[in-house]
Amino acid sequence: MTNVPLPVCGPEGPLRATTAAHGPVPVRAVLFDFGGTLFQIGTYAQRIRAVLRRPVGASEMDGLLDRLESGLGAPDVVAAQRGRDVSPAAHRHAFTTWYASVPALAPHAGALYAQLREPAHWMPYADAGPTLARLTGAGLALGVVSDVGWDLRPTFAHHGLDHHFSAWVHSFEHATEKPDPALFAHACRELGVAPAESLMVGDHPAKDGGAAGAGLRAYVLPAGASPGGHRGLDAVLRLAGVD
Question: Would the pTM count as exceeding 0.90?
Fold first, then answer.
């Protein structure tokens, strides 16, 4: 692994010209975000019905979801999101504060949060497994870099996907969040590759796209994919040179 210092940039670009002697560096490792990238949890409607344990009609569900949406802007909910992923306690507080912003869900805030930690509630996207298999079959090293409050390995293992990964970087274990370069750098060290040889794949422009500031390439997926659907991960194969 060769560490190449990042160029110092002014407002218009690098201060000193740099040249690549042999063209772009090949991708040797791919780092993945978790939720919204490889996995998605069941819908909020499904999760709410599971904790309420009673029939919930369409009209009532729409009202609950509307209140959850409104709750995202509540001052106490907004405040609870700051530093959400730096510790398990902060993560739980952030989510349960939001759930409890809906009076009918407040008694079930703990149960809704517990769903996040249960592997069976998460579904891999339909193209996650095949994409990971193609990448590892081509000899690329894979890692997970996720802003999260618990260990993700049991969830990947539950769905038979953990064996693809050689590095696991959970934000709560490092007391920081993406796009802190330290998280991406740690994953690269674990995999024995330079940042310039790595591709970060995620769904958050600032957090996952921020890997570019650490010297990695980055690919940001659009939001809104349905649980269990196709995520468009075939593009990762092309970007990694696996065709």
Answer: no
The amino acid present at 112, given as its one-letter code, is L
169-185: b (≥16 Cβ within 10 Å) or e: bbbbeeebbbbbbebbb
198 — pLDDT class (breaks 50, 70, 90): very high
Provide the CATH topology of domain 9-38+125-239: Rossmann fold (3.40.50)
Select from 5, 24, 25, 26 the least CA-distant residue to 16: 5
> Helix/strand/coil (H, E, C) string of 83-150?
CCCCCHHHHHHHHHHHHCCCCCCHHHHHHHHHHHCCHHHEEECCCHHHHHHHHHHCCCEEEEEECCCC
Let me know: does 50 contact 63? Beta carbons within 8 Å: no
Residues of the chain with CATH 3.40.50.1000: 9-38+125-239
Residue ranges of alpha helices (H) inside 175-214 are 181-191
Task: Give per-residue pLDDT as tens, 133-155.
Answer: 999 999 999 999 999 999 999 99
- 53-67 pLDDT tens trace: 999 999 999 999 999
